[in-house]
Specification:
By secondary structure, this protein is an alpha/beta fold. Helix content is 37%, strand content 14%. The structure holds pyridoxal-5'-phosphate and zinc ion.
Protein backbone atom coordinates (compact mmCIF):
# COMPACT_ATOMS: atom_id res chain seq x y z
CA UNK A 1 0.00 0.00 0.00
CA UNK A 2 2.46 2.64 1.18
CA UNK A 3 4.96 1.70 -1.54
CA UNK A 4 2.44 2.51 -4.27
CA UNK A 5 1.66 5.87 -2.59
CA UNK A 6 5.36 6.77 -2.61
CA UNK A 7 5.60 5.73 -6.23
CA UNK A 8 2.72 7.93 -7.40
CA UNK A 9 4.28 10.89 -5.60
CA UNK A 10 7.70 10.59 -7.16
CA UNK A 11 7.11 9.31 -10.70
CA UNK A 12 6.32 11.83 -13.39
CA UNK A 13 3.76 10.34 -15.77
CA UNK A 14 4.48 10.23 -19.49
CA UNK A 15 2.80 13.03 -21.46
CA UNK A 16 -0.48 12.30 -23.23
CA UNK A 17 0.02 11.01 -26.78
CA UNK A 18 -0.60 13.54 -29.53
CA UNK A 19 0.84 16.52 -27.66
CA UNK A 20 3.64 18.41 -29.34
CA UNK A 21 6.99 18.68 -27.57
CA UNK A 22 7.00 21.55 -25.05
CA UNK A 23 3.24 22.11 -25.35
CA UNK A 24 3.10 23.09 -21.67
CA UNK A 25 6.52 24.65 -21.30
CA UNK A 26 8.30 23.70 -18.09
CA UNK A 27 5.20 22.02 -16.61
CA UNK A 28 5.79 18.33 -15.89
CA UNK A 29 2.49 16.91 -14.63
CA UNK A 30 -0.80 17.59 -12.87
CA UNK A 31 -0.54 16.81 -9.15
CA UNK A 32 -3.39 16.30 -6.69
CA UNK A 33 -3.45 18.98 -3.99
CA UNK A 34 -4.80 16.47 -1.48
CA UNK A 35 -2.87 13.22 -1.99
CA UNK A 36 -0.01 14.18 -4.33
CA UNK A 37 -0.99 11.62 -6.98
CA UNK A 38 0.23 12.73 -10.41
CA UNK A 39 -1.43 12.44 -13.80
CA UNK A 40 -0.23 13.40 -17.27
CA UNK A 41 -0.73 16.95 -18.54
CA UNK A 42 -4.10 16.98 -20.29
CA UNK A 43 -7.75 18.07 -19.94
CA UNK A 44 -8.04 16.72 -16.38
CA UNK A 45 -9.03 18.53 -13.22
CA UNK A 46 -9.93 15.93 -10.58
CA UNK A 47 -7.67 13.32 -8.99
CA UNK A 48 -8.57 9.79 -10.14
CA UNK A 49 -7.60 8.51 -6.66
CA UNK A 50 -9.37 10.91 -4.29
CA UNK A 51 -11.26 13.48 -6.49
CA UNK A 52 -9.05 16.27 -5.07
CA UNK A 53 -8.25 19.23 -7.36
CA UNK A 54 -5.27 18.89 -9.71
CA UNK A 55 -2.59 21.56 -9.90
CA UNK A 56 0.22 22.10 -12.44
CA UNK A 57 3.69 21.15 -11.20
CA UNK A 58 6.95 22.20 -12.87
CA UNK A 59 10.63 21.63 -13.22
CA UNK A 60 11.82 25.23 -13.50
CA UNK A 61 15.12 26.10 -15.16
CA UNK A 62 17.21 28.93 -13.72
CA UNK A 63 15.27 32.10 -14.56
CA UNK A 64 16.85 35.54 -14.22
CA UNK A 65 15.35 38.99 -13.64
CA UNK A 66 17.07 40.15 -16.83
CA UNK A 67 15.42 37.45 -18.97
CA UNK A 68 12.04 38.41 -17.60
CA UNK A 69 12.65 42.14 -18.05
CA UNK A 70 13.63 41.52 -21.69
CA UNK A 71 10.24 39.91 -22.38
CA UNK A 72 7.08 41.62 -23.68
CA UNK A 73 5.02 44.03 -21.53
CA UNK A 74 2.36 41.41 -20.86
CA UNK A 75 2.03 38.10 -18.94
CA UNK A 76 4.23 36.24 -21.44
CA UNK A 77 7.33 37.84 -19.90
CA UNK A 78 6.77 35.11 -17.25
CA UNK A 79 6.16 32.31 -19.79
CA UNK A 80 8.96 30.18 -18.31
CA UNK A 81 6.87 29.99 -15.11
CA UNK A 82 3.57 29.19 -16.86
CA UNK A 83 2.18 26.00 -18.52
CA UNK A 84 2.58 27.47 -22.02
CA UNK A 85 4.93 26.76 -24.94
CA UNK A 86 8.00 28.94 -25.48
CA UNK A 87 6.53 30.27 -28.76
CA UNK A 88 3.32 31.44 -27.05
CA UNK A 89 3.69 35.03 -28.32
CA UNK A 90 3.28 33.86 -31.92
CA UNK A 91 -0.33 32.67 -31.40
CA UNK A 92 -2.94 35.47 -31.47
CA UNK A 93 -4.18 36.25 -27.97
CA UNK A 94 -5.35 39.34 -26.04
CA UNK A 95 -1.88 39.92 -24.49
CA UNK A 96 -3.13 40.77 -21.00
CA UNK A 97 -1.16 41.83 -17.96
CA UNK A 98 1.65 44.12 -16.93
CA UNK A 99 -1.04 46.44 -15.62
CA UNK A 100 -0.07 49.46 -13.56
CA UNK A 101 0.90 49.35 -9.90
CA UNK A 102 -0.09 52.76 -8.58
CA UNK A 103 1.20 54.39 -5.40
CA UNK A 104 -2.11 55.21 -3.67
CA UNK A 105 -0.87 58.03 -1.45
CA UNK A 106 -4.22 59.80 -1.10
CA UNK A 107 -6.08 56.65 -0.10
CA UNK A 108 -3.21 55.72 2.21
CA UNK A 109 -3.43 59.09 3.96
CA UNK A 110 -7.22 58.78 4.27
CA UNK A 111 -6.94 55.32 5.83
CA UNK A 112 -3.85 56.11 7.93
CA UNK A 113 -1.50 53.75 6.09
CA UNK A 114 2.18 54.53 5.62
CA UNK A 115 2.52 52.90 2.16
CA UNK A 116 -0.25 51.57 -0.09
CA UNK A 117 -0.25 50.40 -3.70
CA UNK A 118 -3.19 49.56 -5.99
CA UNK A 119 -2.57 46.83 -8.54
CA UNK A 120 -5.04 47.99 -11.19
CA UNK A 121 -6.26 45.08 -13.29
CA UNK A 122 -9.25 47.03 -14.59
CA UNK A 123 -7.07 48.06 -17.55
CA UNK A 124 -6.76 44.55 -18.98
CA UNK A 125 -8.16 43.99 -22.53
CA UNK A 126 -11.69 43.18 -21.32
CA UNK A 127 -11.32 45.18 -18.12
CA UNK A 128 -10.89 42.51 -15.51
CA UNK A 129 -8.17 40.18 -14.22
CA UNK A 130 -9.93 37.28 -16.02
CA UNK A 131 -7.98 38.02 -19.22
CA UNK A 132 -4.89 36.58 -17.49
CA UNK A 133 -6.41 33.21 -16.65
CA UNK A 134 -8.23 32.94 -19.98
CA UNK A 135 -5.00 33.52 -21.94
CA UNK A 136 -3.45 30.50 -20.19
CA UNK A 137 -6.59 28.41 -20.72
CA UNK A 138 -6.62 29.37 -24.41
CA UNK A 139 -3.06 28.12 -24.80
CA UNK A 140 -4.04 24.79 -23.23
CA UNK A 141 -7.14 24.56 -25.45
CA UNK A 142 -4.96 25.08 -28.52
CA UNK A 143 -2.34 22.53 -27.49
CA UNK A 144 -5.10 19.99 -26.72
CA UNK A 145 -6.66 20.69 -30.12
CA UNK A 146 -10.02 21.76 -28.70
CA UNK A 147 -12.74 22.73 -31.20
CA UNK A 148 -14.74 24.88 -28.80
CA UNK A 149 -13.62 27.36 -26.15
CA UNK A 150 -16.30 27.67 -23.47
CA UNK A 151 -17.12 28.68 -19.89
CA UNK A 152 -19.85 29.10 -17.31
CA UNK A 153 -19.47 32.63 -15.92
CA UNK A 154 -20.73 35.29 -13.55
CA UNK A 155 -19.83 37.87 -16.21
CA UNK A 156 -16.18 38.88 -16.39
CA UNK A 157 -15.03 35.43 -17.42
CA UNK A 158 -17.63 35.39 -20.20
CA UNK A 159 -16.28 38.71 -21.53
CA UNK A 160 -12.69 37.44 -21.47
CA UNK A 161 -13.45 34.06 -23.08
CA UNK A 162 -15.61 35.55 -25.84
CA UNK A 163 -12.95 38.16 -26.71
CA UNK A 164 -9.99 35.76 -26.56
CA UNK A 165 -11.83 33.21 -28.72
CA UNK A 166 -12.66 35.86 -31.31
CA UNK A 167 -9.05 36.99 -31.49
CA UNK A 168 -7.75 33.41 -31.70
CA UNK A 169 -10.31 32.41 -34.32
CA UNK A 170 -11.70 29.54 -32.24
CA UNK A 171 -15.43 28.98 -31.75
CA UNK A 172 -16.72 30.14 -28.35
CA UNK A 173 -19.84 29.08 -26.46
CA UNK A 174 -20.39 31.09 -23.30
CA UNK A 175 -22.93 30.34 -20.55
CA UNK A 176 -24.21 33.02 -18.13
CA UNK A 177 -27.07 33.32 -15.63
CA UNK A 178 -29.97 35.08 -17.37
CA UNK A 179 -30.24 37.78 -14.64
CA UNK A 180 -26.77 39.31 -15.24
CA UNK A 181 -26.06 43.08 -15.40
CA UNK A 182 -26.68 44.44 -18.95
CA UNK A 183 -23.10 45.75 -19.44
CA UNK A 184 -21.69 42.28 -18.81
CA UNK A 185 -24.20 40.66 -21.22
CA UNK A 186 -23.40 43.15 -24.00
CA UNK A 187 -19.65 42.88 -23.31
CA UNK A 188 -19.89 39.17 -24.14
CA UNK A 189 -22.49 39.21 -26.91
CA UNK A 190 -20.44 41.73 -28.89
CA UNK A 191 -17.64 39.15 -29.23
CA UNK A 192 -19.61 35.92 -29.80
CA UNK A 193 -22.80 34.78 -31.53
CA UNK A 194 -23.06 31.85 -29.11
CA UNK A 195 -23.86 33.45 -25.76
CA UNK A 196 -26.31 31.28 -23.83
CA UNK A 197 -28.37 32.81 -20.99
CA UNK A 198 -29.42 30.09 -18.54
CA UNK A 199 -32.44 30.42 -16.28
CA UNK A 200 -30.75 29.86 -12.94
CA UNK A 201 -27.92 31.14 -10.73
CA UNK A 202 -24.18 30.65 -11.27
CA UNK A 203 -24.11 27.31 -9.49
CA UNK A 204 -26.83 26.01 -11.89
CA UNK A 205 -24.87 27.28 -14.90
CA UNK A 206 -21.71 25.65 -13.57
CA UNK A 207 -23.48 22.30 -13.16
CA UNK A 208 -24.80 22.47 -16.73
CA UNK A 209 -21.28 23.21 -18.00
CA UNK A 210 -19.85 20.15 -16.23
CA UNK A 211 -22.57 18.03 -17.84
CA UNK A 212 -21.80 19.38 -21.33
CA UNK A 213 -18.05 18.89 -20.75
CA UNK A 214 -18.79 15.23 -19.98
CA UNK A 215 -21.00 14.74 -23.06
CA UNK A 216 -19.17 16.65 -25.81
CA UNK A 217 -15.78 15.86 -27.36
CA UNK A 218 -13.30 18.62 -28.03
CA UNK A 219 -14.71 21.29 -25.72
CA UNK A 220 -12.28 23.21 -23.50
CA UNK A 221 -14.23 24.72 -20.59
CA UNK A 222 -11.71 27.18 -19.20
CA UNK A 223 -12.75 26.82 -15.56
CA UNK A 224 -13.85 23.17 -15.69
CA UNK A 225 -11.75 20.66 -17.66
CA UNK A 226 -8.75 22.95 -18.27
CA UNK A 227 -9.05 24.64 -14.87
CA UNK A 228 -5.52 23.70 -13.69
CA UNK A 229 -4.01 25.62 -16.64
CA UNK A 230 -6.49 28.50 -16.29
CA UNK A 231 -5.70 28.91 -12.60
CA UNK A 232 -1.95 29.32 -13.20
CA UNK A 233 -2.67 32.60 -15.02
CA UNK A 234 -3.40 34.29 -11.68
CA UNK A 235 0.21 33.77 -10.64
CA UNK A 236 1.18 36.58 -13.01
CA UNK A 237 -0.48 39.09 -10.65
CA UNK A 238 1.99 38.04 -7.96
CA UNK A 239 4.99 38.09 -10.31
CA UNK A 240 4.12 41.57 -11.60
CA UNK A 241 3.61 43.05 -8.14
CA UNK A 242 7.03 41.76 -7.04
CA UNK A 243 8.76 42.95 -10.22
CA UNK A 244 7.06 46.37 -10.11
CA UNK A 245 8.15 46.81 -6.48
CA UNK A 246 11.74 46.35 -7.70
CA UNK A 247 11.82 42.58 -7.14
CA UNK A 248 10.50 42.70 -3.57
CA UNK A 249 7.46 41.18 -1.90
CA UNK A 250 5.00 43.47 -0.12
CA UNK A 251 4.41 42.96 3.62
CA UNK A 252 0.62 42.67 3.26
CA UNK A 253 -1.73 42.05 0.33
CA UNK A 254 -5.54 42.18 0.16
CA UNK A 255 -7.20 39.99 -2.52
CA UNK A 256 -10.89 39.35 -3.36
CA UNK A 257 -12.22 35.81 -3.03
CA UNK A 258 -14.82 34.21 -5.36
CA UNK A 259 -13.69 30.63 -6.04
CA UNK A 260 -10.50 31.52 -4.15
CA UNK A 261 -8.24 30.57 -7.04
CA UNK A 262 -6.62 33.99 -7.49
CA UNK A 263 -5.67 34.35 -3.83
CA UNK A 264 -4.04 30.92 -3.63
CA UNK A 265 -2.14 31.50 -6.88
CA UNK A 266 -0.73 34.88 -5.84
CA UNK A 267 0.66 33.10 -2.79
CA UNK A 268 2.02 30.32 -5.04
CA UNK A 269 3.71 32.99 -7.20
CA UNK A 270 5.38 34.62 -4.19
CA UNK A 271 6.70 31.24 -2.98
CA UNK A 272 8.00 30.38 -6.46
CA UNK A 273 9.84 33.71 -6.69
CA UNK A 274 11.47 33.01 -3.32
CA UNK A 275 12.40 29.45 -4.37
CA UNK A 276 13.90 30.73 -7.64
CA UNK A 277 15.94 33.35 -5.76
CA UNK A 278 14.23 36.17 -7.71
CA UNK A 279 13.14 37.92 -4.50
CA UNK A 280 14.46 37.90 -0.94
CA UNK A 281 12.73 35.44 1.37
CA UNK A 282 10.63 37.44 3.82
CA UNK A 283 7.32 37.05 5.65
CA UNK A 284 4.17 38.43 4.00
CA UNK A 285 0.53 38.32 5.03
CA UNK A 286 -2.32 37.45 2.65
CA UNK A 287 -5.81 38.83 3.41
CA UNK A 288 -9.01 37.65 1.68
CA UNK A 289 -12.02 39.88 0.94
CA UNK A 290 -15.66 38.84 0.52
CA UNK A 291 -19.06 40.54 0.53
CA UNK A 292 -21.14 39.53 3.54
CA UNK A 293 -23.95 38.38 1.20
CA UNK A 294 -21.62 35.67 -0.10
CA UNK A 295 -19.00 35.08 2.59
CA UNK A 296 -18.63 31.32 3.11
CA UNK A 297 -14.83 31.54 3.36
CA UNK A 298 -14.85 34.50 5.75
CA UNK A 299 -17.42 32.69 7.92
CA UNK A 300 -15.27 29.54 8.05
CA UNK A 301 -12.19 31.62 8.89
CA UNK A 302 -13.91 33.36 11.78
CA UNK A 303 -15.31 30.08 13.11
CA UNK A 304 -11.86 28.47 13.03
CA UNK A 305 -13.17 25.83 10.60
CA UNK A 306 -11.27 23.94 7.90
CA UNK A 307 -14.38 23.17 5.87
CA UNK A 308 -16.28 25.84 3.92
CA UNK A 309 -20.10 25.51 4.16
CA UNK A 310 -21.79 26.52 0.85
CA UNK A 311 -24.20 29.48 0.90
CA UNK A 312 -26.83 30.98 -1.43
CA UNK A 313 -25.32 34.29 -2.64
CA UNK A 314 -27.20 37.57 -2.18
CA UNK A 315 -24.91 40.55 -2.86
CA UNK A 316 -24.26 43.31 -5.41
CA UNK A 317 -20.72 41.90 -5.76
CA UNK A 318 -21.89 39.45 -8.44
CA UNK A 319 -18.43 38.66 -9.77
CA UNK A 320 -17.60 37.30 -6.30
CA UNK A 321 -20.93 35.49 -5.88
CA UNK A 322 -19.81 31.87 -5.80
CA UNK A 323 -21.61 30.13 -2.97
CA UNK A 324 -19.56 26.93 -3.14
CA UNK A 325 -15.96 28.08 -3.70
CA UNK A 326 -13.70 25.32 -5.06
CA UNK A 327 -10.53 26.76 -3.52
CA UNK A 328 -12.14 27.96 -0.28
CA UNK A 329 -10.24 25.54 2.01
CA UNK A 330 -6.92 26.51 0.40
CA UNK A 331 -7.69 30.22 0.97
CA UNK A 332 -8.11 29.39 4.67
CA UNK A 333 -4.72 27.58 4.61
CA UNK A 334 -2.90 30.49 2.95
CA UNK A 335 -4.36 33.20 5.18
CA UNK A 336 -3.73 31.20 8.35
CA UNK A 337 -0.22 30.19 7.31
CA UNK A 338 0.85 33.75 6.48
CA UNK A 339 -0.87 35.43 9.44
CA UNK A 340 -3.56 37.19 7.39
CA UNK A 341 -7.33 36.92 7.81
CA UNK A 342 -10.48 36.66 5.66
CA UNK A 343 -12.98 39.47 6.27
CA UNK A 344 -16.32 40.55 4.77
CA UNK A 345 -18.32 43.78 4.42
CA UNK A 346 -21.91 44.78 3.63
CA UNK A 347 -23.17 45.91 0.23
CA UNK A 348 -23.42 49.50 1.53
CA UNK A 349 -19.77 49.37 2.53
CA UNK A 350 -18.95 48.03 -0.96
CA UNK A 351 -20.68 51.05 -2.56
CA UNK A 352 -18.92 53.49 -0.20
CA UNK A 353 -15.54 51.93 -0.98
CA UNK A 354 -16.09 52.23 -4.76
CA UNK A 355 -16.65 55.99 -4.31
CA UNK A 356 -13.75 56.27 -1.83
CA UNK A 357 -11.25 54.72 -4.30
CA UNK A 358 -12.62 56.84 -7.16
CA UNK A 359 -12.41 60.14 -5.23
CA UNK A 360 -8.97 59.49 -3.70
CA UNK A 361 -7.16 57.82 -6.61
CA UNK A 362 -9.16 58.37 -9.81
CA UNK A 363 -9.78 54.64 -10.23
CA UNK A 364 -13.30 53.40 -10.97
CA UNK A 365 -13.59 49.87 -9.70
CA UNK A 366 -16.43 47.38 -9.95
CA UNK A 367 -18.14 45.85 -6.94
CA UNK A 368 -15.37 43.25 -6.49
CA UNK A 369 -12.81 46.04 -6.08
CA UNK A 370 -15.19 47.90 -3.79
CA UNK A 371 -15.30 44.77 -1.67
CA UNK A 372 -11.49 44.56 -1.56
CA UNK A 373 -10.92 48.25 -0.74
CA UNK A 374 -13.76 48.20 1.80
CA UNK A 375 -12.27 45.15 3.51
CA UNK A 376 -8.87 46.88 3.56
CA UNK A 377 -10.50 49.83 5.37
CA UNK A 378 -12.22 47.53 7.85
CA UNK A 379 -8.98 45.63 8.53
CA UNK A 380 -7.13 48.89 9.29
CA UNK A 381 -9.91 50.12 11.57
CA UNK A 382 -10.07 46.82 13.46
CA UNK A 383 -6.29 46.66 13.86
CA UNK A 384 -6.02 43.39 11.94
CA UNK A 385 -3.80 44.99 9.28
CA UNK A 386 -0.63 46.84 10.34
CA UNK A 387 -0.79 50.45 9.04
CA UNK A 388 3.00 50.79 9.21
CA UNK A 389 3.70 47.92 6.81
CA UNK A 390 3.77 48.18 3.00
CA UNK A 391 0.41 47.02 1.63
CA UNK A 392 -0.94 46.14 -1.83
CA UNK A 393 -4.65 45.97 -2.68
CA UNK A 394 -5.78 44.37 -5.95
CA UNK A 395 -8.43 46.05 -8.11
CA UNK A 396 -9.70 43.18 -10.25
CA UNK A 397 -12.34 44.84 -12.44
CA UNK A 398 -13.77 48.02 -13.98
CA UNK A 399 -16.61 50.11 -12.57
CA UNK A 400 -18.27 50.63 -15.95
CA UNK A 401 -19.41 46.99 -15.79
CA UNK A 402 -21.36 47.53 -12.57
CA UNK A 403 -22.60 51.11 -13.02
CA UNK A 404 -25.92 50.37 -11.35
CA UNK A 405 -24.18 49.62 -8.06
CA UNK A 406 -23.30 53.28 -7.53
CA UNK A 407 -25.75 55.01 -9.90
CA UNK A 408 -27.90 55.82 -6.87
CA UNK A 409 -24.96 57.03 -4.74
CA UNK A 410 -23.40 59.63 -7.03
CA UNK A 411 -25.00 62.30 -9.23
CA UNK A 412 -24.34 65.79 -10.65
CA UNK A 413 -24.01 68.40 -7.87
CA UNK A 414 -26.38 70.67 -9.81
CA UNK A 415 -28.36 70.89 -13.05
CA UNK A 416 -28.40 74.48 -14.25
CA UNK A 417 -29.24 76.86 -17.11
CA UNK A 418 -26.16 77.74 -19.24
CA UNK A 419 -25.59 81.11 -17.54
CA UNK A 420 -22.94 82.43 -15.14
CA UNK A 421 -25.62 83.56 -12.73
CA UNK A 422 -27.05 80.06 -12.52
CA UNK A 423 -23.58 78.64 -11.90
CA UNK A 424 -22.76 81.24 -9.24
CA UNK A 425 -25.98 80.33 -7.45
CA UNK A 426 -24.78 76.75 -6.99
CA UNK A 427 -22.00 77.85 -4.61
CA UNK A 428 -19.49 75.69 -6.50
CA UNK A 429 -17.30 78.62 -7.65
C1 LIG B 1 -13.53 36.18 -10.95
C2 LIG B 1 -13.24 37.45 -10.23
C3 LIG B 1 -12.59 37.49 -8.98
C4 LIG B 1 -12.22 36.29 -8.15
O1 LIG B 1 -11.68 35.23 -8.73
P1 LIG B 1 -11.43 33.80 -8.05
O2 LIG B 1 -10.12 33.42 -8.60
O3 LIG B 1 -12.55 32.91 -8.53
O4 LIG B 1 -11.45 33.94 -6.56
C5 LIG B 1 -12.31 38.73 -8.45
N1 LIG B 1 -12.63 39.87 -9.07
C6 LIG B 1 -13.24 39.88 -10.26
C7 LIG B 1 -13.59 41.19 -10.88
C8 LIG B 1 -13.56 38.68 -10.88
O5 LIG B 1 -14.19 38.72 -12.08
ZN1 LIG C 1 -5.76 12.82 -4.87
Amino acid sequence: MSASVVETETTTPAPSPGLREGAFGNATALACRECGHQVALGPFYACPECFGPLEVSYDFPAVTREEIAAGPANIWRYKALLPVPSDIESSPNTEPGFTRLLAADNLAATLGLSKLWVKDDSTNPTNSFKDRVVACALSAARELDARVFACPSTGNLANAVAAAGARAGIKTVVFIPSNLETPKVVNSAVFTDSLVAVEGNYDDVNKLASEIAGEEEGWAFVNVNVRPFYAEGSKTLGYEIAEQLGWRLPDQIVIPVASGSQLTKVDKAFRELIDLGLVEDKPYKVFGAQATGCSPVSAAFKDGKKVVRPVKPDTIAKSLAIGNPADGPYVLDVCRRTGGVVEDISDDEVREAIVLLARTEGIFTETAGGTTVGVLKKLVESGQLDPDLETVVINTGHGLKTLDAVAGSVAPAATIAPTYAAFAATGLA
